Amino acid sequence: MPEDRDWEAYKVPPTRTPVSERITSVPNPVTFLQTVFNYVVDAPVTFVREWIERQQAKNKFYYYHQKFRRVPDLSECLEGDYLCFFEAEAQWRRDRMVDQEIVEIVRERLGACKQREGPSQFQNCAKEMEQLVQVTKAYQDRYGDLGVHGNARTCLMKQKHRMMEERKAQANASQ
C-alpha cells in the first residue's frame, strides 16, 4: 500500500463541532418547573409508596391461599334469616365449583395416563379410571338433575328425597 494517499478520493469526514450552551442571566423555566415538580409532587408520592411497600413486605398476603370460613348449611339457618340463606347459597356455589374442578382434574389425569400408556391403557390406568368413576358418581349424586339454575335449596331437597328413598328401601328390605 503506498504511503501517499489520494486525499481527494478518500476525504476525511468533517469534525463535529460541539454546540455551545447559551448562558444567560435568566434561568431556564423548564428546569425550574421540573425541580418544583420533583420536590412538590414526585418526592412525597415516592416516599409514601415506598413506605407502603415496606409495610406490605412485612406481612405478605398470598391470595391463592385464601381460606373462607365455613358458613352454616341451609338446613342450619333459622326461618327468616335471609343473610344466612345468602351465605349458605354462596358457600354452596363455592363447593359446587370446587367439586367441578375436582372432576375436571381427575378427568385430565386419566387423559394424561391414556396418552402416556397408549395401547396398554386399560391395565395401567385402571386406578385413574376407578377414581374418575367414583368422583363423577359422587358429583352426579349431589348436583345431577339440578340444571343450570340449581341452587342450595333444590340441592338440599334432592338430598332429602334421596335419603327418604333409601330409608324406604331399607324398611322394605327388612320386612
From TrEMBL:
Protein's cellular compartments: Mitochondrion inner membrane
Record's keyword terms, sorted: Electron transport, Membrane, Mitochondrion, Mitochondrion inner membrane, Respiratory chain, Transport
Membrane topology: Peripheral membrane protein
Taxonomic superkingdom: Eukaryota
GO cellular component terms attached to this protein's record: mitochondrial inner membrane; respiratory chain complex I
Main location: mitochondrion
The keyword Disulfide bond is assigned to this record: no
Family statement: Belongs to the complex I NDUFB10 subunit family.
Annotated PANTHER family: NADH DEHYDROGENASE [UBIQUINONE] 1 BETA SUBCOMPLEX SUBUNIT 10, NADH-UBIQUINONE OXIDOREDUCTASE PDSW SUBUNIT
Protein function: Accessory subunit that is involved in the functional assembly of the mitochondrial respiratory chain complex I. Complex I has an NADH dehydrogenase activity with ubiquinone as an immediate electron acceptor and mediates the transfer of electrons from NADH to the respiratory chain.
Protein name as annotated: NADH dehydrogenase [ubiquinone] 1 beta subcomplex subunit 10
Organism: Spheniscus mendiculus
